[in-house]
Design goal:
mainly alpha, three-stranded mixed β-sheet, three-stranded antiparallel β-sheet
Length: 310
């Protein structure tokens, strides 16, 4: 089986990267951070017009559907993760076709996708994706968030559960976001290792830095393989494994990138800390490590059980 992206899929990824580079490049990212992290509704509508949220809806003469599948959505979300695009992207994408305006980007939909009674972007959302569709907005109090671009709110009522389809697809798309971030921190580390000089030569010439960058690349490529495979098979166990690997790649790559940057990486001006903070948060979204590990353990146990002689 060939898991390599087709030419059309590569063109789709390149187009999304170009769109985000022009509309949400580093200057826009830093402006959003310095401005307090509010959601840009204009950007949200532009994403809707580009088909970001309606990507998997059937094509229609009047509808916004693009008619693509889960593998294409994974490639698009990978690019969004690479650019650190903020907002409840996964929830709004999953709500397309169900919540009015979600597909077009005129509505912002969040979800009960975090451990505990926490909801991201609640104050900026028009609806909350819950069990079986969209629920009315619950009351919530602002809660501390490690990510300056992801405001959190604590809700009093217990969060409703997810349908199976939403949970698995949400976990896979979140893994794709993590993958994009992991690949981006590899790029940042390698570029800095080529530019920063110590003792008359680039720090990338030193073996310790080479090893860090090599480990980052291996981690990201293993996660990429798992995420792409899960997008093709849509198997629940493979999605759990992909989420675990992508979470690890995003968090550990950001940490290693900080090591390559040295003291500069810990400053507010560097972007590395933004990748680390977002990776920490995403690791708790849709499918946390404990639940993913339990799912994988259950599947392994079932596979190892002796066959029924009858």
């Amino acid at each position: 089986m060939d898991f390599q992206p087709t030419e059309e899929q590569r063109d789709l990824r390149a187009g999304v990267r170009e769109l985000l580079a022009g509309r949400y490049g580093r200057e826009a990212l830093r402006a959003a951070v310095d401005g307090g992290g509010g959601l840009d509704r204009k950007l949200w509508r532009e994403l809707g017009e580009a088909g970001f949220f309606a990507l998997r809806l059937p094509e229609g003469e009047r509808g916004p559907g693009v008619g693509l599948g889960l593998p294409e959505a994974v490639l698009v979300f990978e690019e969004a993760g690479r650019a650190l695009l903020p907002g409840p992207l996964v929830a709004t994408h999953l709500a397309a076709g169900t919540v009015p305006g979600a597909a077009e980007g005129t509505a912002v939909v969040t979800a009960f996708d975090l451990d505990g009674p926490l909801v991201a972007h609640l104050a900026e959302a028009d609806a909350v994706l819950g069990a079986g569709g969209a629920a009315e907005l619950p009351a919530g109090e602002p809660a501390p968030s490690v990510d300056p671009l992801t405001p959190l709110y604590r809700v009093a009522a217990p969060a409703p559960g997810h349908t199976g389809a939403h949970r698995d697809e949400g976990a896979l798309l979140t893994a794709a976001l993590q993958l994009g971030s992991a690949l981006r921190t590899v790029e940042l580390a390698v570029r800095y290792a080529k530019e920063r000089e110590q003792f008359g030569q680039p720090i990338g010439a030193f073996q310790a830095v080479k090893h860090l960058c090599a480990q980052m690349l291996v981690r990201a490529e293993v996660a990429r393989t798992a995420v792409y495979a899960a997008a093709v098979t849509a198997d629940a166990g493979e999605i759990a494994g992909a989420k675990l690997l992508a979470d690890e790649a995003a968090v550990r790559n950001a940490r290693d990138c900080l090591q390559v940057y040295g003291g500069m990486g810990f400053t507010w001006e560097a972007d590395v800390h933004l990748h680390l903070k977002r990776a920490w948060l995403r690791a708790r979204q849709w499918l946390g490590a404990a639940e993913a590990e339990e799912r994988l353990a259950g599947e392994l146990l079932a596979a190892a059980a002796p066959a029924d002689p009858e």
